[in-house]
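User: Zinc-ribbon domain-containing protein, Loktanella salsilacus:
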Amino acid sequence: MVLRHATFRPHHLNGSPMKRFTCPTCAKEVHFRNQSCVNCGTRLGFDANALVMRAIGPDVVLCANAQAAGCNWMAVKSVPGSFCLACQHNRIVPDARTKGNLSRWRDVELAKRQLIYALIRWSLPRPTRAQDPGMGLAFDFLADAEGPNGVTPVMTGHDSGLITINIAESDDDVRVARRTAMDEPYRTLIGHMRHEIGHYYWAMLVDGSPQIERYRALFGDERTDYSVALQRHYDNGAPQNWRQTHISAYATAHPWEDFAETWAHWMHIADGVETATSYALSLDGCQVRLDGYKARDIAPVIEAWVPVTVALNNMNRAMGQPDLYPFVLNKSVMAKLQFINDLIHAATSPNK
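Assistant: Predicted structure for Zinc-ribbon domain-containing protein:
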């Protein structure tokens, strides 16, 4: 069995910006979401510029959302009431007075911080709404509205830099019901974030750029009527042979959705390989030693990723859980992933 050959080897924490962090006081391991060290009690703040944990002191100010939303990032400005690099993109946040909204908001914020972490690692442009009113990155975290005529649902989506997330997606029962209704193998908050940010970077890096023709050759012509294409997909489903050309059934709906789905998967892969590397995961005697965020050629990243997914899929099955990564990376998808990685590394960021 594959898992019999999977071993964890000791790993020296050298402060590299991987998904493994240490307490600045006692040097014990702390996690990305931790607000304090469970070993020594040191209050922590994530320094998004250095990608390390700092001890909270007179010179370290936490994000204004620390208490309400559980944000553990340091504020951009050392002034009380300031937001961090992630929360400065918030436009509308949930009404914390509504029962359940506080925990939903915290879940959504954690997924958003993980998203912003990746954008920082890639040095991708991420202007705020104040810096770019027309295309600045902003988030609305909204709940379905109940009125006299029934419930008005919030649609998760992207529009000119504004990403809207329905906070009900943080509820397991809601998310599972929607995943089942849409026959999806995978549905998570971080998946929503990564998908919608894919739409954002299509608008930022592809639309009207010299890359548009290469994009159309790989993904199709985005000028195809979106509403008609989406309705056709909902009515008829994906073509029977979609696994030979796309990463998911939904990716077949329209070239925009194909790009967003593929973008999300490249984020899954880069982050997954980084995590495997940071924990020195070894499979069949081969240790994963790659930085998926820095790689220009995706081939070695995929070569490292596939055995990890096979092992962890089997581990999940052993525990009675769904596969961790139930997707196939065909040749067409590989070409699309390479295109997206090329886009990322060609982009520059004025606010790294």
